[in-house]
């Protein structure tokens, strides 16, 4: 694959999430610049619950950088 084709591939937004209102896959991008809010509800503070919180934190950080 040529270098220019690779750079174009990485220029696209690749982070997609399911819209809770419509159930459709959408590009994960903040609607406006500023604070991004993500709601996460772990059932307990066990390793699985901590992974839920970590994933939510990483999602917010990726959106703010993007």
Describe the model.
It is built from two helices and two strands, in the order H-E-E-H. It is mostly helical. The protein has one domain. Strands 1-2 form a two-stranded antiparallel ribbon.
Q: What is the overall silhouette?
A: globular
Please write the string of helix (H) and strand (E) elements: HEEH
Q: Average pLDDT value?
A: 78
Number of beta strands:
2
Strand order of the largest sheet: 1-2
Measured between the Cα atoms of the first and last residue, the distance is: 25 Å
Helical content band: 40-55%
- Give the structural class: mainly alpha
Low-confidence stretches: none
Described by strand count, sense and barrel closure, the largest sheet is: 2 strands, antiparallel
Task: Specify Rg, calculated over alpha carbons.
Answer: 15 Å
Strand content: 5-15%
Number of helices: 2
- Count of domains: 1
Characteristic key phrases:
single chain; mainly alpha; 2 strands; globular
């Amino acid at each position: 694959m040529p270098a220019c084709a690779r750079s174009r591939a990485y220029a696209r937004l690749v982070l997609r999430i399911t819209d809770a209102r419509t159930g459709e896959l959408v590009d994960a991008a903040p609607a406006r610049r500023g604070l991004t809010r993500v709601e996460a509800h772990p059932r307990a503070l066990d390793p699985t619950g901590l992974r839920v919180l970590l994933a939510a934190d990483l999602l917010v950080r990726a959106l703010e950088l993007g």
